[in-house]
Design brief:
Elements (H helix, E strand, L loop, with lengths): L1 H21 L7 E6 L3 H15 L2 E6 L4 H8 L7 E5 L1 H9 L3 E2 L4 H6 L12 E13 L22 E2 L6 H14 L1 H14 L9 H8 L5 E5 H8 L6 H7 L1 E4 L10 E9 L5 H12 L1 H11 L2 E2 L8 H4 L11 H6 L1 H11 L8
Parallel strand pairs: 1-2, 1-3, 6-7
Antiparallel strand pairs: 3-9, 4-9, 5-7, 5-8, 5-9, 5-10
Bound molecules: fe (ii) ion (FE2).
Length: 348
């Protein structure tokens, strides 16, 4: 399998060599991107990079096992840049040894310190809020704090995806950082007791469940609302999104849990110079904006505006908790989900 990609890259290089003789556009070579992000989501920003630099991008999309693949490829890995979502995946890439440190003035100036690894192994490009989808019909305008999800007033009214999913583990890890383990566990028991059904599906099906009247509130990421509202291929998702409103829940500091999508320089990076150029480009304010608008996220730099649709949700007051604290609590959060039996649903 991996040799297919190597072969494809080699074939590309030789076709580039031919193209290079014909014109200047391809003369600067290629950069190989290993991505957990869907190719069509990252295409606009990668196209902008190619237009500016003449460097082509080759994207290998994987939905799992990205780090293991790079490890298996070893010194021959064609991976130059890793694109992924979630702090846990970024820190996993670092701890599995498939990244290298990058200390780059441009990148460091563009990305706020709280959204990059102190040792330069990963860089946040966009951020997303873990918010509440609330029924427009059945939920009033009252604020809902994360703590309120354990309030018996929501009994039988909450839907969510698996507690073991990265997005929920990120939130629970943040809760542990804010509240400590004992309080978080009590809270999680209350959340479980309030569930309308066994956790299942992705974030979008939770909006669908609200639309169908199965629950009144759900946990979900901000960008799915933008993706559903604009989904021309599956227009029924527009109905789901129109049935809900985004409520920004907060911890006691008045701030909402955020996670990031980001980039890392791969350990061996055969096209290292091009890879650094790509990471510099992705960190630029223009690229953060294109990227964030395309995927309905927030640019990592809070000084930059998100898309109109995302602005329509209201104001995100992003938590300032260090992302490394969140990834450090991940194991404790995952064990807690099992101990509480969150994924068993409300009845057991
Ligand atoms: Fe997602």
């Amino acid at each position: 399998m991996r040799f297919d990609f190597v072969r494809a890259v080699l074939a590309l290089c030789s076709s580039l060599a031919v193209a290079a003789a014909a014109g200047p556009a391809a003369a600067d070579g290629v950069v190989n991107v290993y991505s957990y992000r869907q190719p069509d989501l990252i295409k606009p920003v990668l196209d902008a990079f190619t237009a500016e630099t003449g460097i082509r991008t080759e994207v290998l999309f994987l939905d799992k096992g990205l780090e293991d693949r790079i490890l298996a490829e070893g010194l021959n890995s064609p991976a130059d840049v890793i694109l992924t979502v979630d702090i846990a995946r970024l820190t996993a890439a670092k701890s599995k040894g498939v990244t290298q440190a990058l200390d780059d003035q441009t990148v460091n100036a563009n990305i706020p310190a709280e959204y990059r690894d102190p040792e330069g192994h990963w860089f946040g490009l966009t951020k997303r809020g873990r918010v509440i989808y609330a029924s427009r019909e059945r939920v009033g305008d009252e604020p809902i704090a994360y703590a309120d999800l354990a309030d018996p007033k929501w009994k039988g009214k909450i839907c969510m995806r698996s507690g073991q999913h990265d997005y929920n583990l990120g939130l629970f890890s943040a809760a542990i950082a804010h509240w400590g383990e004992a309080r978080t566990e009590e809270w999680m028991k209350g959340l479980k007791a309030n569930l309308a059904r066994k956790p299942d599906g992705g974030d979008r099906p939770q909006a669908k469940a609200i639309y169908a009247g199965e629950c009144d509130i759900a946990l979900g990421n901000t960008y799915y609302v933008g993706l559903m509202l604009t989904n021309e291929k599956e227009p029924q998702e527009k109905d789901w999104a129109n049935a809900i409103k985004v409520v920004f829940p907060t911890f006691e500091n008045g701030r909402t849990h955020v996670n990031i999508s980001g980039a890392a320089l791969a350990k061996n990076a055969p096209n290292r110079d091009n890879a650094v150029k790509l990471i510099e480009f992705l960190s630029s304010h223009d690229a953060q904006k294109i990227y964030a608008e395309q995927v309905f996220e927030y640019p990592a730099d809070s000084g930059l505006e998100p898309s109109e649709i995302v602005k329509s949700f209201g104001t995100l007051n992003a938590d300032t908790l260090p992302l490394t604290d969140i990834s450090n609590n991940r194991k404790a959060a995952s064990e807690m989900v099992d101990r509480v039996g969150l994924d068993d649903g409300p009845s057991s």
